[in-house]
TrEMBL record, chain A:
GO terms for cellular component: plasma membrane. Fluoride-specific ion channel. Important for reducing fluoride concentration in the cell, thus reducing its toxicity. It is found in: Cell membrane. Na(+) is not transported, but it plays an essential structural role and its presence is essential for fluoride channel function. This is Fluoride-specific ion channel FluC. Keywords: Cell membrane, Ion channel, Ion transport, Membrane, Metal-binding, Sodium, Transmembrane, Transmembrane helix, Transport. GO terms for biological process: cellular detoxification of fluoride. The chain crosses the membrane at residues 34-51, 58-77, 93-114.
From TrEMBL, chain B:
Fluoride-specific ion channel. Important for reducing fluoride concentration in the cell, thus reducing its toxicity. Keywords: Cell membrane, Ion channel, Ion transport, Membrane, Metal-binding, Sodium, Transmembrane, Transmembrane helix, Transport. Na(+) binds at residues 74, 77. GO terms for molecular function: fluoride channel activity; metal ion binding. It comes from Bacillus methanolicus PB1. It is found in: Cell membrane. Its main location: membrane. This is Fluoride-specific ion channel FluC. The gene is fluC. It is a multi-pass membrane protein. GO terms for cellular component: plasma membrane. The chain crosses the membrane at residues 7-28, 34-52, 64-84, 96-121. It catalyses: fluoride(in) = fluoride(out). Na(+) is not transported, but it plays an essential structural role and its presence is essential for fluoride channel function. Belongs to the fluoride channel Fluc/FEX (TC 1.A.43) family.
Length: 117, 131
C-alpha cells in the first residue's frame, strides 16, 4: 500500500514536470521536439544514478517508478516520430529516433556509472 | 488547469503501469521486461488514436484531453525504465534479448502508434459519411 502511494505521488510530479518542460521546449510539430527529448534523456540519466545507488524499495517506488517513469514518455515520442514521417521529414524523424534511443541508453549507462562510483 | 489534470492523469497512468509490471513479473518472471513493453506498445496505440481523433477534440475541453493524453497515457508509458532495462539485459549478457527489446520498442511502438492513428482517421471518415 505504501508503494502505491509513493508511485502515485511521484507520478503526479513527474507528469507535471514533463508537461512544463514540453510546453517550454517543444516547438512546432515539424521540428524535433526538444522538450520530449530532454525529459527522456535527463530521466534516463537520473534513473541510472538512482538504480546505481541502490537506495531501497521506497525511494525507488517514489523517484524511480513514480517520478522518472512518468517524467519520461514513450507514447509521445512515437506520435511525434510518426508525425515527422507523415510530413516526409524522414531524416529528422530518423535522427530523432536515433538520438533518443542511443542517447537515452548512453545517458542511463553514465548515470549507472556515476551512481555506483 | 491543464497542469492539475495532467498531474492527476500522471497518478492514474503511473499506477496502471506499476500494476502491469507487477502482474507481468509474477506471470513471466524477470527474464524479459514484458510489463514495460506492453505498457509502451499499448500506450503508443492509445496516444496515436487519441491525437488523431477529431471527435475527442471537438467534444472534450482541452484540459481533459491533456489529462488523458499527456497525463494518463504519457505517464503510463515510460522511456527511462526502457533504457535501464535494456542496460540490465546487456549486463546480464542477454544480448539477444536486449536487441529484441530495442527492436520491438522502436519499430513495434511506431507500428502501434500508426495503427491507432489509422483507426481514429477511419472512424472519423465513416462518421462524416453517415452524416
Amino acid at each position: 500500500m505504501k508503494n502505491l502511494l509513493l508511485v502515485a505521488l511521484g507520478g503526479f510530479f513527474g507528469a507535471v514536470s514533463r508537461y512544463f518542460i514540453s510546453r517550454k521546449l517543444n516547438g512546432h510539430n515539424s521540428k524535433i521536439p526538444f522538450g520530449t527529448l530532454t525529459v527522456n534523456l535527463l530521466g534516463s540519466f537520473l534513473l541510472g544514478i538512482l538504480i546505481g545507488k541502490k537506495l531501497g524499495e521506497a525511494v525507488y517506488a517514489l523517484f524511480g517508478i513514480g517520478f522518472m517513469g512518468a517524467f519520461t514518455t514513450f507514447s509521445t515520442l512515437k506520435a511525434e516520430t510518426l508525425q515527422l514521417f507523415e510530413q516526409k521529414k524522414t531524416i529528422k524523424a530518423a535522427f530523432y529516433l536515433a538520438i533518443t534511443y542511443i542517447g537515452g541508453i548512453t545517458a542511463g549507462f553514465l548515470g549507472l556509472l556515476i551512481g555506483r562510483s | 488547469m491543464s497542469y492539475v489534470t495532467t498531474g492527476l492523469g500522471g497518478i492514474i497512468g503511473s499506477l496502471l503501469r506499476y500494476f502491469l509490471s507487477v502482474t507481468a513479473l509474477s506471470l513471466w518472471g524477470d527474464g524479459f521486461p514484458f510489463g514495460t513493453l506492453a505498457a509502451n506498445l499499448l500506450g503508443a496505440f492509445a496516444f496515436g488514436w487519441l491525437t488523431n481523433n477529431k471527435a475527442v477534440f471537438r467534444k472534450l475541453p482541452a484540459h481533459i484531453v491533456s489529462g488523458i493524453g499527456t497525463g494518463i497515457i504519457g505517464s503510463f508509458t515510460t522511456f527511462s525504465t526502457f533504457s535501464l532495462e535494456t542496460l540490465q539485459l546487456v549486463e546480464q549478457d542477454h544480448l539477444f534479448f536486449a536487441f529484441l527489446y530495442v527492436i520491438f520498442s522502436l519499430l513495434g511502438g511506431l507500428y502501434c502508434a500508426w495503427l491507432g492513428s489509422c483507426l481514429a482517421i477511419k472512424v472519423s471518415n465513416t462518421e462524416k459519411k453517415s452524416l
